[in-house]
Amino acid sequence: MAMKQKVGLSIVIISFLVAGVCGESLAQKELKLIVADYLPPAYDDYFPATQIFVDQANKIGKGKVKIELFHSGKLLQAKELIPGLMAGTADIIIHTDSYVTGTSPILGILELPFLYKDEFDYSRKTRIGTPLFNLINQELAKQNLMVLSYCASTPEHIWTVKKAVRGAEDLRGMRIRTAGWVEAEVVKTLGAASTNLPSAELYEALKRGTVDAAICYAGTIPGRTLQETLKYVNKGYFGSYCREPFMRLDKWQALPQDIKDILTAAGKAMEEEGFNTLMKVHKEKYWPLILKAGVKVIEPTPEETKKFKEALLPVWDWWKKQVAADVGAKAIELAGK
Q: Which of 64, 88, 188, 273 to pair with 204, CA 20 to 30 A apart?
């Protein structure tokens, strides 16, 4: 009987030791997540936001989560990112919403002209936990998608080769390069013709007169040395984009709460530090290059801004038809507050 008790006690002790070792092993096992981005580090205004998200997650998640970043389209090119995310090739993708708006129209609320006061207002209203952030994710959930955070950018302006633009009448008959769904509607509403071109082809198109102008944010200009071909820029708020990390909703829901908290903290760093870095690069590097090249800046007067906004209100109405009417109206209300 005593021998049986000793054997039984030994088994219990061994079981506790094994359980302890296994528990410790499980606790130390890092969750590996793959992040894909089509941008290369050469985008020194936008790419830092991606790196900030990854570095912050790896720093505060050390021992719990490890993110491996594939940038420059090494894993997925721009048009492959959403399909790759849904197929599980990547766990998180960093994307520009203009690529996604056609299939996820709710993201158009980030791109409407003259809706936000400026980039600071834009950044503030799209932060994690804001009513607008929550509404967008509520709609994306219907597609098994969610956004972790937004890194806001500077507004899109109208850049021209030959003619200064003061009002909508100056744009009539022009051929304007666009890169997104909402942009094209803006140009059409202003009475111009929209031409969709990759930014890599824009320099030659402007130089040869294939297009007369472009609607884009300031980072595209020195990024493609377009300041060599352009003469004017109207700094009205003709649109905007964000960069954001997307996840499949079902994968997010399956994560432990501590991992969700880590990714949320990384998203907060991206939306603040990433935005601040972008603004610094634009102020200290991009705009000095643009001005040095002799591009004349046209700052719209309050009256000119009012007229442009009134002329472009039909774009807001058009966008509301792409989503449920009550959702569109609510989103515009939240963005305009």
A: 188
Query: Do 83 and 123 belong to one domain?
Result: yes
Q: What are phi and psi of 254, to 5 degrees?
A: -80, -10
Read off the pLDDT of residues 216-266 as tens digits, 9 standing for 90 and up: 999 999 989 999 999 999 999 999 999 999 999 999 999 999 999 999 999
Same domain, 145 and 40: yes
pTM for this predicted structure:
0.88
State the Cα–Cα distance between residues 91 and 285, nearest whole angstrom.
Answer: 34
- Contact 309/336 with Cβ under 8 angstroms? no
CB 159 within 8 A of CB 298: no
Q: Do 161 and 73 fall within a single domain?
A: no
Q: Which two tokens stand for residue 257?
A: 């709460």
State the distance between the two ends of the chain, measured CA to CA, in whole angstroms.
Answer: 80
* CA 34, 35, 37, 42 torsion-angle sign: negative
Three-class DSSP labels, 212-249? CEEEEECCHHHHCCHHHCCCEEECCCCCCCEEEEEEEH
CATH number of residue 182's parent domain: 3.40.190.170
Per-residue pLDDT reduced to its tens digit, 64-88: 999 999 999 999 999 999 999 999 9
